[in-house]
Write a structure and sequence with these properties.
With about 300 residues, chain A is α/β, with parallel strands linked by helices. Chain A contains eleven helices and eight strands. Chain A has an eight-stranded parallel beta barrel, surrounded by seven helices. Classes of the chains: A alpha/beta (about 300), B alpha/beta (about 230).
Chain lengths: ~300, ~230
Amino acid sequence: MKSGSKLEKVFAAGEFAVTAELGPPQNANAEAVKKKAQYCLGNVDGANITDNQTAIVRMSSIAAAAIAISCGVEPVVQMVCRDRNRIAMQSDILGAAALGVKNLLCLSGDHQKFGNHPESANVFDLDSVQLIAMVKKMRDEKQFLSGDPIKEHEPRLFIGAVENPFADPFEFRVPRLAKKIAAGADFIQTQCVFDVEKFARWMKLVADEGLHEKVYIMAGLTPVRSHRALRYMKTEVAGMSIPDELIKRMEGVEDKDKEAREEEGIKICLEMIEQVRNIEGVAGIHLMPIGWESITPVICERAGLLPRPKV
Amino acid sequence: MIVADRKPIEEILNSIKDYERIMLAGCGGCVTICFSGGAKAVELLASQIKMAREKEGRPIEIIECTPERQCEYEFIDELKEQLASGPATGVDAVLSIACGVGVQAMNERHPDTITLPGLNTKFMGYPIEHAVWDERCAGCGDCVLEWTGGLCPIARCAKKLLNGPCGGSADGKCEVDKDTDCVWQLIYDRLKKLGKLDNLKVVRKPKDWRTSTNAGQRRTKFEEAML
């Protein structure tokens, strides 16, 4: 075992893994984290604690992860390259591991332009591939990036990375994934899949390269409650592929009550889970119910993903 | 070349509000080429300032000049007499419409007179069409153009990525600004054309930023030419 995390054990046991996003609050309220942790408890193998996602200031992902651990939920701490240099990142990696964190997801990070402090300086001392390599070096070579030894208690982390199969250049997305694997990624979570056909095409390329045998790939899925959310993502978020049929389908329930609209969103998500499960090389799903975390247990239950394996 | 924009006129007027006699110094170098600081720009800005001050009932006297380059001692030392202190011949301040290098050279060589900036210095780049300039070099001190197909990801990627595009590259454009090409798309296309896509398979190590601005002011020497 590289980290001994629950997520790593679930994969090692050959089980279909499930993670879900847990966004920290824009305040210092520990109860808000605990409440969201309850949606994850027993329903997922790991809860992704986002790191100031979309560059909006939120509670530290490592602090929120410690609260999640206190609730019995295993966190997947997200770490972006936008806000910290290599010194601060390594320091936070040691701190996270000391608090019991066993999974770390390495990302470049959304540009600060999209957040609530667009006038801030960004860092990007490292990029996501270099961050992955640094975490692996700390874990496997017991060395800091500088080469200085970590004499004892090196951070034992299961290393995650992300990939967006829908961004451009499409032909470079698989080589880029290969780079992340070469750098040391143990598992991959993808950008939200709405366009299953394009995702399947990408997975085929991944499988052709044999990459699915080197790394565990989790398909990212986002349940939505309205056609407006889909439209927003289609037009405003770069690197998203949203089929028009999906938008039409959600438009079709626009006049119905809230419950019916939500039910349609859940149904779409359940269908997608079924579809991605049947694609070769997909080892799990990662749920990103943006602002709708309470739906995580419902989706896990109705998708037949419960109970989660005891590992 | 160094590209600079003129500061807003209100900001310029405010910076010289206490003065009655100034020198407006342009530069015959880069900023002449990008229209913000050459002899023509000096003439235009001088008349704008004079008009504004006359309207306020506080006329200002402006000595106009455009040395060949403000960033070299030999060209700005010539201004010494015109800057001589004293109400009869001297000026209260210099307004420079050179880049930040020129403004600092003026302050260094003429320490008795304050030189104020009239431009915002922006980047090193070149015109991509008439009157439009794009950034091309960030002066990082450790050039990577050898393996990127001659396109710089340090100057042209909003995240300075070295291992390929982020997830926000779409239809050849950068997510941060839809009018800006994603440099990683350009790098990919160029290397593909050159048959060098293998360059992108290498995991590029973290950059050593000591050669950039992170170690403080940089200095370079050309030993062979030293006296």
